[in-house]
Design a protein that fits this description.
mainly beta, five-stranded antiparallel sheet, 2 helices, about 5% helix, about 25% strand
Length: about 260
């Protein structure tokens, strides 16, 4: 079962572009089994690239409305804008169909202030794909004319406890309730600076366990995506003096010396 992607276009007061894709070119045809290379630049509108910190980049397919879009495969699951404006990956031919201009890229960026921005590339074709799309996705593709991808969105979500950005979109769905090819895990909670608990206690209530009595089906999920960090961990050196080295003639050495000759 493939993942449906929310566009958030209804709930957002405005739509802007921040990341502008320069590759793949609109309407181009790429060969299945070869690397898909994404390149982008600052669009000059909205949030500047210099204010964006991390990103996740996906290959998507479908129409321009939320109900017809599916997320095919990750191109870069844990991208950093500081490393450059390019990413590439090879996608299996069986994950989608050969429909013309069915594919586009989605980049979900997180800013230094926690702002989340979603941008889409223009459409392109993947020749040699051997899979098929669900009927709803195929219907969405047929409604599209031209090579424009879905509209971009910008969301300023409220900060969660500890100053971290709350999970949005796919990451907000309970992990066990997800059924798509890719599962999503929330951002790791930043650790506290002090240990205040006096006794251990469960963080979550206990859950029921069902013992399998027959062989279970093979999992279909291909990977788990973890939301990018919106905080920067700090570390320091250990200032304690190192432990003294062991004496050269310890008990084991004495035992080995007995068998030296």
């Amino acid at each position: 079962m493939l993942i449906r992607l929310p566009l958030l276009a209804v709930s957002l007061p405005f739509v802007i572009a921040d990341v502008q894709f320069t590759s793949p070119a609109p309407g181009t045809t790429l060969q299945a089994g070869k690397p898909i290379t994404a390149k982008w630049k600052d669009s000059g509108d909205g949030t500047a690239l210099s204010d964006l910190k991390t990103y996740t980049l996906f290959l998507c397919a479908g129409g321009n409305d939320a109900d017809s879009i599916i997320q095919i495969a990750p191109i870069n699951a844990n991208g950093q804008f500081s490393t450059g404006n390019e990413a590439s990956a090879t996608v299996a031919a069986a994950v989608g169909g050969p429909d013309k201009n069915a594919y586009f890229l989605k980049i979900q960026s997180v800013g230094t202030d926690g702002t989340q921005v979603i941008n889409y590339s223009d459409r392109f074709t993947l020749s040699g794909m051997t899979g098929t799309f669900p009927p709803g996705v195929q219907a969405g593709i047929k409604k599209v004319s031209g090579t424009n991808g879905p509209p971009s969105t910008n969301q300023e979500a409220p900060a969660a406890a500890g100053g971290a950005q709350g999970a949005q979109g796919d990451y907000a769905v309970t992990y066990t309730a997800q059924t798509g090819l890719i599962k999503y895990a929330p951002m790791q909670i930043p650790p506290g600076t002090k240990i205040t608990a006096k006794a251990a206690s469960p963080k979550y209530p206990t859950s029921s366990v069902s013992i399998a009595k027959t062989f279970l089906p093979t999992p279909k999920q291909t990977t788990t995506m973890t939301a990018s960090l919106t905080y920067s961990p700090a570390s320091s050196h250990a200032f304690n003096a190192p432990a003294a080295s062991m004496p050269a003639q310890d008990d084991m050495q004495k035992f080995l010396n007995r068998w030296r000759d």
